[in-house]
């Protein structure tokens, strides 16, 4: 199922997919991560959208309040990753074509 080739990880992903509402997701993730960790994860798809909007690193750092390291990680995933950010953003109808 995943490139990580782990039955345990696959079951974890299936558990996430079984959640139906943002409230269910909140309860699930609050048991897994701290509030700060959830906030940090939530920033990444937002940061992934900003280069598509034509913003540069400095504008993203100033506007989104994230570090250059976070922007770099997201950018690396956008350039060399498997397309997860683009897929999610497209399904949410937010990615420019």
TrEMBL record:
Pfam families with a match to the protein in the record: Trp_repressor
Alphabetized InterPro entries for the sequence: Trp_repress, Trp_repressor/repl_initiator, TrpR-like_sf, YecD_YerC
Domain of life: Bacteria
Region forming the signal peptide: none
Name of the protein: TrpR family protein YerC/YecD
């Amino acid at each position: 199922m995943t490139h990580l080739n782990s039955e345990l990880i696959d079951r974890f992903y299936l558990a996430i997919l079984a959640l139906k509402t943002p409230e269910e997701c909140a309860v699930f993730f609050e048991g897994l991560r701290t509030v700060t960790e959830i906030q940090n994860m939530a920033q990444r798809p937002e940061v992934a959208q900003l280069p598509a909007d034509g913003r540069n690193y400095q504008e993203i750092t100033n506007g989104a309040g994230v570090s250059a390291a976070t922007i770099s990680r997201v950018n690396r995933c956008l350039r060399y990753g498997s397309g997860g950010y683009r897929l999610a953003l497209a399904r949410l109808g937010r990615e420019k074509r």
